[in-house]
Write a structure and sequence with these properties.
The structure is a homodimer of 162-residue chains. The first copy, chain A, has 162 residues and is α+β, with helices and mostly antiparallel strands. Chain A has a single domain, classed as Homing endonucleases (Endonuclease I-creI), CATH 3.10.28. Chain A is 40% helix and 23% strand. Chain A contains 5 helices and 6 strands, in the order E-E-H-E-E-H-E-E-H-H-H. Chain A has helices at residues 29-39, 71-81, 101-114, 121-136, 143-154; strands spanning 2-4, 16-18, 40-48, 56-67, 85-88, 93-98. In chain A, the strands form 2 sheets. Chain A has a 4-stranded antiparallel sheet. A two-stranded antiparallel ribbon of chain A has the order 1-2. In chain A, strand 3 (40-48) and strand 4 (56-67) form a beta hairpin. In chain A, helix 4 packs antiparallel against helix 5 (143-154). The termini of chain A are far apart. Chain A binds chain B through residues 23-25, 27-39, 66-67, 69-70, 73, 76, 116, 118-120, 122, 159-160, and chain B through 23-25, 27-39, 66-67, 69-70, 73, 76, 116, 118-120, 122, 159-160.
């Protein structure tokens, strides 16, 4: 049993306990940033969706994928941030995933502003944050707005975002 | 320019400065552990070596491999630990690597004892440390000792070390 300490500007509540096998698993904010620098992904998907006014849906998501042997770490991340879900991914992989826009805006983004990524992934995060801010202003609900989002998304996850 | 803060039980010396482009790059101990949980590797190689008494050489090494776009992080790790080298790896990859046994024993192992890994990689680290301790006692210089090392090494890097 280990104590998960929740930190970050938008994480509130008491420390939570998780069953994490035989080792202590006290996640610290800087550990989380380091782990996400290695394993995290900020992604903006744009899908065709017949039911939407624009027929295209903008889907920002933050994910961390691990081999299922380390699924307890994904649960620890979920407890740390106090949002998101842990799901099976392809084959023997599991994923921690945050898609709800309010969670991304109020928890994930403020955390990585307070505890900045050190890798080039920080460029992806900056673009991700800009897309979320545009969505807050409903920019993505116009044709030109979706194109702006698409242009930002195209610069992400290629290591050339900065 | 960013300040690299060196921590850990066996890291001495003043803070060092590195050119890390336009972002601060103050590595903290917990960030380093988180990043290594994601990207690091503890490995023990056993190679045939005609010049050795046992004709087999035991080669423990700690490595972190990244795409070359994040090579500045590898240099920051080298500065943080105060040992090891940064080298080109395959294709567009670069590696931070520590092979010198005294550096592994006096810097790398004490650091990860003080700042424990949270992933299953911790099992690899425990085996890695046991191999280094056996080498300190010259166990690897006997035929049966090399077999013991080989048995430990075979359990590493497969995610089943615990």
């Amino acid at each position: 049993m280990g104590t998960i300490r929740r930190e970050g500007p938008d994480c509130t509540g008491n420390p939570q306990r998780l069953d994490v096998r035989d080792r202590p698993s006290t996640l610290e904010a800087e550990w989380v940033t380091g782990f996400v620098d290695g394993e995290g992904c900020f992604h903006v998907g744009i899908s065709v969706h017949a039911g939407m006014r624009m027929r295209r849906q903008v889907l920002p998501e933050f994910t961390v994928v691990q081999h299922e042997r380390d699924v307890q770490l994904l649960h620890a991340l979920r407890a740390f941030f106090g949002c998101g879900v842990v799901r099976s991914n392809h084959g023997d992989r599991a994923a921690y995933r945050v898609r709800r826009r309010s969670d991304l805006l109020r928890t994930i983004v403020p955390f990585f502003l307070a505890h900045p990524l050190q890798s080039q992934k920080r460029g992806d995060f900056d673009l991700f944050r800009r897309v979320l801010e545009m969505m807050e202003q409903d920019v993505h609900l116009t044709e030109s707005g979706v194109e702006k989002v698409r242009a930002l998304a195209a610069r992400m996850n290629r290591g050339r975002s900065r």
